[in-house]
Amino acid sequence: MSLVLDPAAQDLLFREAxxxxxxxxxxxxxxxxxVIYDLVKFGPTAFNQSPLRVVLVRSAEGRERLVQxxxxxxxxxxxxxxxxxxxxxxxxxHEEIPALxxxxxxxxxxxxxxxxxxxxxxxxxxxxxxxxFIIGVRAAGLAAGPMTGYDAAGVxxxxxxxxxxxxxxxxxxxxxxxxxxxxxPRLSYDEVITTV
Length: 196
Hints:
The structure is a single chain. By secondary structure, the chain is α+β, with helices and mostly antiparallel strands. It has helices spanning 7-15, 30-40, 60-67, 75-80, 97-100, 107-112, 115-139, 152-159, 189-192; strands at 52-57, 83-90, 143-147, 164-173. A 4-stranded antiparallel β-sheet has the order 1-2-4-3. 30% of the residues are buried.
């Protein structure tokens, strides 16, 4: 059996895709980001809660504020990427449930009345959406450089608020010179898949 998705698309999204470490100076437009979002918003989340929130860092002032919170090795690429996205989980996502789940609006209070429950669910489902976002960036013909090497408390204070938890920072653009590290190994099917 083969996949229905065209092999070239499989390569673009998975086999040939890598985390980019350098980028050209070609801009990433708001229109490109809109197209990416309009694709990935259809990825499933529990109760359709859709807790991912994205802060786009474009300005020189914003970039300077962000770079100071990045780990040393992530600073140069964050400083030079055409666009940087802060991906965060909205811990108050439940306020949107009546609109996002109109056939079951009572889920807002039935399942998500308590903050610790919301934080756990928001973290899991926003991380799922972050993965969709990275695939969407690739589908747009761009490279993504997702990173978790940063001061999360500093990024939260600088760009978010107490209701939003940063998950990762993603550099976005066309890959530059020597953008890729060699492909690292992956686990085999038998190492991952178990049938019971």
